[in-house]
């Protein structure tokens, strides 16, 4: 059943759903934890104050859903090194500039004179390549299934125009493999997933059936309004009460079973699965997108540069936050040296990062204990 968008934030609707969750939780008779694996959900949950509305027995935990946060430090080291080459301009979405590398941030590198520009889409970088034919324009290709089609479209545009100086630094990731890793982790205390709505538009909700079939875990595909998220939580607790473990699509106004085949075909033209490193997880098989060998002329990872040994910021526990083993306030640096204005780790940089979301919205409502 779909719901009118203006009902999705309606106080009476939200109050009714919270009451339903309280009733289900009391029927369950024990605490439970649910993980969201989409940065937009992390932001939506915190900004709407949903944690505070829920009974103490229902815990919401953030997973690896923020693309900036899961990008490993070595990727940033390479981007900064590339930006130091005389004929290179590195282009990036703005959030990446403030993420610490092993040495400095890209923002600091830019202040030191390295060629780093903020763009709002990969096509901006293609346009830059047109205007600066003597420079190599390297786009930092970071994001999940939702971003990859726009990057593939930019590559197709550059190919169609025979534009030789548009390159990317491949860093795209896909969600199912880390979710396999999380679901198989015996230490994970989570009993169900709020599944990523935007990613599901591309992949289709059936992509997540493995959670129920292989791991006996429930999942709900939900949108981003408060009522969307609360409906997903209610369904997951109802499943626990009734002994069901199913993948339920509650975002059927935009998500279907099989997703967007056209977008996936465009991505498949340029990319193939690769084993890549996720911050907090290490290498995960098939979790990244590498350029196919026929597009090696557009692959900036083949350019030789000198790199430092990758070093995560001292004391930062982003890896534990991204695996859901701690909540952001459990990091000793949270609000004690690490804030959005002076971020020590990646999870405090992006608005989709769990630490930034907690700092901005949940810190005073819920407190450090979570
Ligand atoms: S609070 Fe800062 S230092 Fe701690 S895990 Fe989050 S980003 Fe890292």
Overview of this protein structure:
- The chain starts with 10 loop residues before the first helix and ends with a helix.
- α2 packs parallel to α15, α7 packs parallel to α8 and α8 crosses α13.
- The protein has 15 helices and eleven strands.
- It folds into three domains: 112 residues, 3-Layer(aba) Sandwich (Rossmann fold); 151 residues, Rossmann fold, CATH 3.40.50.11740; 45 residues, no CATH class.
- The protein is α/β, with parallel strands linked by helices and 370 residues long.
- It has a five-stranded parallel beta sheet. A four-stranded parallel beta sheet has the order 4-3-5-6, with helices on both faces. Strands 10-11 form a two-stranded antiparallel ribbon.
- Bound molecules: iron/sulfur cluster.
- Iron/sulfur cluster binds next to α14.
């Amino acid at each position: 059943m779909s719901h009118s968008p203006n009902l999705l934030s309606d106080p009476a609707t939200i109050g009714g759903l919270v009451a339903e969750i309280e009733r289900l939780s009391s029927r369950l008779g024990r605490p439970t934890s649910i993980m969201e694996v989409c940065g937009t959900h992390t932001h939506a949950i915190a900004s709407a104050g949903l944690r505070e509305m829920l009974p103490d027995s229902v815990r919401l935990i953030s997973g690896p859903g923020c693309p900036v946060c899961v990008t490993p430090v070595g990727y940033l080291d390479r981007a900064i090194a590339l930006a130091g080459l005389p004929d290179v301009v590195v282009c990036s979405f703005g959030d990446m500039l403030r993420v610490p590398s092993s040495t400095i941030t890209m923002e600091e590198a830019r202040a030191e004179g390295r060629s780093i520009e903020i763009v709002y889409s990969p096509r901006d970088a293609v346009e830059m390549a047109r205007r600066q034919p003597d420079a190599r324009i390297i786009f930092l290709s970071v994001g999940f299934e939702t971003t990859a089609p726009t990057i593939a479209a930019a590559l197709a545009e550059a190919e169609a125009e025979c534009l030789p100086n548009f390159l990317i630094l491949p860093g795209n990731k896909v969600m199912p493999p880390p979710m396999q890793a999380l679901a198989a982790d015996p230490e994970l205390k989570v009993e169900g997933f709020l599944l990523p709505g935007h990613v599901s538009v591309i992949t289709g909700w059936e992509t997540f059936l493995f959670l129920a079939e292989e791991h006996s875990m429930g999942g709900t595909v939900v949108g981003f309004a408060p009522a969307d998220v609360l409906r997903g939580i209610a369904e997951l607790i109802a499943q626990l009460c009734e002994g069901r473990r199913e993948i339920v699509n509650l975002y059927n106004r935009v998500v279907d079973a099989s997703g967007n085949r056209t977008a996936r075909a465009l991505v498949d033209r340029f990319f193939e699965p690769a084993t890549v490193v996720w911050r907090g997880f290490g290498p995960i098989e098939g979790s990244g997108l590498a350029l196919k060998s026929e597009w090696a002329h557009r692959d900036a990872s083949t350019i030789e540069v000198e790199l430092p040994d990758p070093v995560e910021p001292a004391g930062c526990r982003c890896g534990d936050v991204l695996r859901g083993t701690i909540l952001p306030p459990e990091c000793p640096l949270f609000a004690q040296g690490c804030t959005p204005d002076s971020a020590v780790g990646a999870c405090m940089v992006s608005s989709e990062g769990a630490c930034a979301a907690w700092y901005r919205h949940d810190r005073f409502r819920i407190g450090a204990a979570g």
